[in-house]
Structures are given as structure tokens and as C-alpha cells.
Amino acid sequence: TATTVPCPTNEFRAPSGGCMTAAAFAATCTPGTFVRFPVGSSEQTFPVGSSATMECVSCPPGFSDHDAHALTACVPCTAGQFTPNASSGLCSTHACPSGTSDVDSDPATPCVTCLSVGTFVPRGAVGSCTSSAFLCRAGTSDEDLTSASECTPCTAPGTFVPPRSFGPCTAISFLCPAGTTDADSLSATPCVICGPGTFVPAVSHGPCSNFACPPGTADTDSNASTPCVSTGTASPTTATAAPTTTGAPTETLTPVSASPTTN
Question: pTM to 2 decimals?
């Protein structure tokens, strides 16, 4: 029976059968691995005349070979990342891509694709796909119906775009209905109901006082969504949008929500 000759000091048996230094053997390992020395030894502490075998071992899930050097240990990665078996490179390069989230805060498990519309899930996200942190904020909309892209700011006056909205900013559901106005010209705030003595067409913006029935007309039904009626005839006359300084009704600031198409 052949006898295995012990390796010289500071060398280990390689899987091929020959003796090699740790550095020489590490150079044969692929990225995503580290050198495992025989039990009871390390790169710094070598048993004299060892015949034990070195191994190239894959970094486990949740870890990465950050420097592509097999003689250094794999480093643990953090939540918001996914590093499968034998990962290499900086942990930051393994961040969950936009539109996905690390729902269990475990870098050893895959990122989950988020399918909810009205959301934006940025790169490196952590937590449930339905988290309120990912909802499009008021005044913005998920125009392309994908959580991988940022919510679009809606800037047109005469609209109200509530949180978690999706679809084009110009959608009918975001327009202030007749009888209401976008008093502050901000799409993030609700349209305001105007009181009697006014006529406020749809998609209006500005204070309710801008829509007071002009002289010679009256709001006969106390409904701001219907035209003011001439006091001399029965035919309706649409009020102008010019501000009125006398006889203006008290503004009723009752917020109402638009009915956006949200899920």
C-alpha cells in the first residue's frame, strides 16, 4: 500500500494530491469561495508535516466574497440584499432591485417582486410590498402601473390626486367636480366644496370667492355646481371667474375627496 508523504511545513495537501502553500492554493479557488483549512489549523497556524487537505468552499447564502480573495472570510450582508450561495462582490451590489423587496429582512432569501399598483418600491427596499412607505404619496400617481418606477408628480391645477393613485395624472377621476375648487392649486390637497351664491365649473382652481354669482344673477337653487340664473330672465347665465369684492358669500371650506381609480 502506498504511503502518503506528509507535506512540508507551511504547506497543505491540495485536492489534486500535491502539496501547496495556502496562497498558491487560494489562487486556484473561484470568486465566491474561501479556503477551508483542515480542522485545528489556519493560514497562520500550520501543523508540521500535515497531510490534511485544503478545500475551496462556497460562501453560504447571506454572505459574499467581497474582495475575491479566498484567504479572507466571506462577509455577512444585510437586509435589503440577496446573496445566494457562492456570491462575490460588495454586498451593496446585491441590493434588491427596484420593484422588489426583502420582505423577511434576510439576505439569504430571494427578494420578492411587488405587484401592487399605486406604489414605488426603490432599490434595496425592506419590508412588506404593501407597506405604507411604498405608496405613491398624495399629488403623485403610478402612471405606468409598475412598482419599479417612481411615482409621477401631478402638477395640473383643478385636480386632487390622493395617496396610492395610479393611472395618468389627467384621469377624469382626479378632476375637481363642478361645485368644488382646487383652492390652493395643489393636487395633493382635496378639492373644496363651495357654498351658495357661487357657480364653480369642473376643474376649477382658486378660492370660492372667485366664483361668486355676478350682479344681475342669482344662485336660485343654492347649488354651486349649477350656473347662476339671470334675475331678469329665466335663462341661465354662467358666472365669470373674476373676483368679487361685494356681496361675496362666505366660503365653505369643506374638503371632499376625488374618486381616483385606486386599488
Answer: 0.74
